[in-house]
Amino acid sequence: MALADVRPEGLDADRSPEWFRTATRWTQVTFTDDDPGTFDIDFWIDVMRRTRSNALCLSAGGYMAFYPTQLPFHHRSAHLAGGDPFGELVDAARGLGMHVMARVDPHAIHQDAAEAHPEWLARDEEGNPIEHDSMPGVFWTDPFSTYLSEHITQIAQEITERYDVDALFANRWESVKGVSYSEPVARRFRAETGHELPRPSDLTDPAWAAYTRWRSTKFSELVGLWDDAVRAVKPHVRFIPNRNPRITRDLVRELIEDRYPMLVIDKQGRWEDEAAWTPGRIGKRARGLFPDRPVALLASVGTEHHALRWKDSVTSPAELTSFIVDGFVHGGRPWFSKFKAEIFDPRWVEPVTEAFELHHRCEPLLERLTHVAEVAILDVRAPDGPTPWTPSDRDPRAHEDGLYQALVEARIPFEYISDEILTLERLAGVRVLVLPASCDLAPAHVEVLEQFVARGGSVVACYDSGARATPGGTREFALGDLLGVRLERDAYGPVKNNYIALEGDHPLNRGYDGARRIVGGTTLLDVRAEPGTDVPFRFIPAYPDLPMEEVYPRSYDGPPAVVTREHPSGGRTVYVAFNLGEVYWRALQADHGRLIANAVTWARGDDSPQVEVRGAGLVDLATLAGDGELAACLVNLNDPMAMRGQRHELIPLTDQEVRVRLPEGAVSVRARLVVADRSVPVDVVEGIARVSVEELELLEVVHLTWS
What we know:
Layout: E1 26-30, H1 41-50, E2 55-62, H2 85-95, E3 99-105, E4 108-110, H3 111-116, E5 138-140, H4 146-162, E6 167-170, H5 183-193, H6 207-233, E7 238-239, H7 253-256, E8 263-266, H8 278-289, E9 295-300, H9 317-329, E10 332-339, H10 349-368, E11 370-371, E12 375-379, H11 397-409, E13 414-418, E14 432-435, H12 443-454, E15 458-462, E16 467-469, E17 475-477, H13 480-483, E18 485-492, E19 499-502, E20 517-519, E21 524-529, E22 533-540, E23 560-566, E24 572-576, H14 580-587, H15 590-604, E25 611-614, E26 619-626, E27 629-636, E28 653-661, E29 670-673, E30 678-680, E31 683-685, E32 688-696, E33 699-705
Parallel strand pairs: 1-2, 1-10, 2-3, 3-6, 6-7, 8-9, 9-10, 12-13, 12-14, 14-15, 15-24
Antiparallel strand pairs: 4-5, 11-26, 16-17, 18-21, 19-20, 19-22, 22-23, 23-24, 25-28, 26-27, 27-33, 28-32, 29-30, 29-33, 31-32
Helix pairs in contact: 4-6, 8-9, 9-10, 11-14, 11-15, 14-15
């Protein structure tokens, strides 16, 4: 096959320092030992053409070399013989005009390297080498040894020198989970921190905190070392180690700020009870931390689970396309990964092709326009646990999950803003900032929030958001003056049989059809509402849940459950004195979802939202805007499996209506359905443009333009 005959029209990957900006659809092939000499290169050329991929990530070396390496102890594939499968596919991809990234895996070595370089090995508490748990005769490497800092660096430079690549990609580069108790690492840690390596038997050892900081610094320095090494060979080449959904928040931002020109988020599928919107959140979270940096979301064609391993499986077509599509409408460029170049089950090809084709249709808008929303969630880094691998006792994720679910259900477009870059300038365009359970805010963050409301912005704060420790060991509300509350009693619970009573006529307690009370929380805070506030909900003091004869309220005069305040600037604040997001995530009570939506809607103000989508079903909404144009991306997530595991079918929705608030003076308004590829009528009534979407299978993008 002549490569000149298969190059997609107009595709020609450059080799400039900005190459990563045009790498928008990725194919990844992860070789296995028996692939050389047997894999069908024409099949992969065809797949890359059909999926319109413009970038390839391909296994090169590290644990196993798939090219004729000249470095000692760089283990060659047993089936390599005199071939060069890596080089062949690199040349094929370059012939298609694609970018190329070489994958290396430093996490393990073979017996000969282990015997020659015992200092490369990770070791247990007794000093014994840690044998690989699934591959006998193979050993885990120490991530802080010279195997990574020197040997992998040499491998990366050899690949960069010999092959036409744009980047190196490291998988499992943080290596063994846990502490490696090798003597070289122990000496370094002792010299640099003054501590001995901490032991799992004592999680109270202050050395754990020192180790967490030290580990983060060393990994950050390693990223810089590798990046400098390949750029010294070819200036445009970058070293980009993969990241998990925490992005780079476990690294030292100052050390890696300019080391990740693009982010590759390795979250290859949904696990267990993760919601269908999981890939979209990954895109939002990454943009909330690095708003101007490309993000690729790595999706496996197989079934993903944190404990069950079927690495060469094929997932449901509906799940695979949904995962890719929901990711890319929120900024996660599509990247599919296939373990093993040999094909046992080709059922993944069509779903990937379909999803990538959808991205190709939408790419001009997704790359040209900017994601916008009037609502944002403050993304606060979860507190460190006693070790780098154990969660903190106070994990805010469920609080965030519940708010996220409610906002998706309410079809309220929203973004993320990381606390690491929270500034008044970053909040430009945001009308409501939502705090799920954001305690221990820095004084600078509190000041930004106060200035935001003074400028006319609004804040919805839940649970212990704004609480901070005092020198006396108790907590107070740093946001108390802003929210109009004073803390009387800190969080307590779990509380059973808690209810909140509707007080007066307030927009927050509308829509409950005459109910006098609704379900409350399981963890509460007692607060006092200050003058100038309203209390639309008040706690009914908890009472027994058994025996049945004792299940009745003893009194109705509990403290405020929800406190609202209107500020002279026009900004509004809402404070919810219980674990609203967490309890919604756990119980999914519709009344809690309505309360979240009501709070955000009221805080946003009385005028119409910028974008509104009306209709039935679960729809994830992303909005992008530019000068004289706006795109509303509708992803159909309506499915009985939306809250757990694989999606088995696409169930089309009908009769969706997109409403867009136009800027004053907008004329000549036109609308187009990007996926359906046709113009559609648009009605403009009192400055609101209305467009009907008669059927929504998986994705539709309503593109409005005006002059």
